[in-house]
Amino acid sequence: IRPGKEPGAFTLSPERQEEARKQITSFLQSGEPILFFDNISGQFGGPDIDRLITTQKWTDRPLYSAQSVTVDTNITILATGNNLGTERETSRRCVALRIAPACENPSARTFAIPDLRQYAIDNQQELAAAGLTILRWHIAKGCPPRPPAVIEPGDGSRKVTEIATYGGFER
Hints:
Elements: E1 9-10, H1 17-30, E2 34-37, E3 43-44, H2 47-54, E4 57-60, E5 69-72, E6 76-79, E7 85-86, H3 88-91, H4 116-122, H5 124-140, E8 149-151, E9 159-161
Parallel strand pairs: 1-2, 2-6, 3-7
Antiparallel strand pairs: 4-5, 8-9
């Protein structure tokens, strides 16, 4: 993200896959580095999202055009939603994060950094370097297997479970 410039947000509708594909094509043609799907309900993913995440080139016909275009897919894709799930194939192609505040009234919390958005903009290079350092450590350690997941269902209990790895055709 360029300093001071936030990515635009798209909305995905499962029943309007054709329109979503055209939106993705238009976005990729814009050259913007971040594609942000905001407030998704239900499941995230499907054949077009899987293709977008996996391939290096995207070919489709833009809105109101008879000619196909091919564009690079060298972008970062973000998606948000409440209790968001992912389609089976999509889940093995992305990193899912869940915010579990562990308190009764999450909107009343206070934070050490009151304006996190501005902090992220002001410290973008340092935060990016820290993220890359974590990835470098993981690779230097030989990409160790992920630890078991700890699930907190909301009733105060904790459940530890192994996360299955989906098979694939990669090397």
